[in-house]
Design a protein that fits this description.
The chain is mostly helical and 126 residues long. Among the domains are: 39 residues, no CATH class; 49 residues, no CATH class. Helix content is 56%, strand content 10%. The strands form two sheets. The chain has a two-stranded antiparallel sheet. A two-stranded antiparallel sheet has the order 3-4.
Length: 126
């Protein structure tokens, strides 16, 4: 057995020398540091519908309706619905704005444009 073979390390079926192992560690170190920084920067976790409803003090069914109508920002992870911290901030901002009933306002505008209707008279009985 040669000295190189004695210094070789087994890594998942791969035989690496000390120099190759050091080179691999040096290559992967920046990647691992970037991943750690990204995970550490994620202070708040994503919320699900139940957690969001509890935070906003509304029912889960209301959150479901708003998600189905695409009225609030959300992310789908497969079949699951999740809300990021940015989504939650946007939802809270949207909840503070006064709501307007555009359907009612447009109906009122249309009725004001119509000609006044004559009252209906009952037919005379004979």
């Amino acid at each position: 057995m040669t000295e190189a073979e004695m210094n070789a390390r087994s890594l998942g079926g791969w035989q690496l020398t000390d120099q190759q192992l050091a080179q691999l560690v040096a290559t992967l170190r920046p990647v691992m540091e970037a991943m750690r920084a990204r995970v550490a920067g994620d202070d708040q976790k994503w919320l699900d519908k139940t957690q969001l409803a509890a935070r906003l003090q509304v029912s889960v069914s209301l959150v479901d309706l708003k998600v189905a109508g695409r009225e609030i920002p959300h992310h789908r992870v497969g079949r699951l619905v999740r809300f990021t911290p940015a989504d939650i901030a946007e939802i809270e901002r949207l909840m503070q704005e006064p709501t307007r009933n555009f359907e009612r306002e447009s109906a009122l505008a249309l009725t004001s444009l119509r000609a006044p209707q004559q009252p209906r008279r009952r037919p005379r009985r004979q």
